[in-house]
Amino acid sequence: MTEYEIACLGKTRFTTRRYAKAAASRIRRTGGPAMRPYPCDYCGLFHVGHRAGHATYRRHTPELTQ
User: Fold this and answer.
1) Rounded CA gap, 66 and 23, in Å?
2) Which 8-state DSSP code applies to residue 14?
3) Domain residue limits, the chain
4) Distance in angstroms (rounded) separating the CA atoms of residues 9 and 42
5) What is the full per-residue pLDDT of the chain (66 aa) written as tens digits?
6) Can you list the alpha helix ranges (DSSP code H) found in the chain?
7) Nearest 5°: phi and psi at 19?
8) Distance from CA of residue 20 to its chain's centroid?
9) Strands annotated E in the chain
10) Distance CA 44, CA 56 (A)
11) Rounded distance, CA 16 to CA 14, Å?
């Protein structure tokens, strides 16, 4: 998987931080996890993701070799 596929592809895109924040609030109100809006480096829009320390899994990132 490419970084783009992990970071952006398949995620809901919001045109403003305000819309993303409203979506995160709806998720939380309906019993979902704590989420936060964040800008995407790939599409330039906003996604919602787990707040720091609240992720349900940890992404494996390969170590760089020198």
Assistant:
1) 42
2) B
3) 3-50
4) 9
5) 888 888 899 999 999 999 999 999 999 999 988 899 999 999 999 999 987 766 655 555 555 444
6) 3-7, 17-29
7) -65, -40
8) 10
9) 35-39, 46-50
10) 25
11) 6
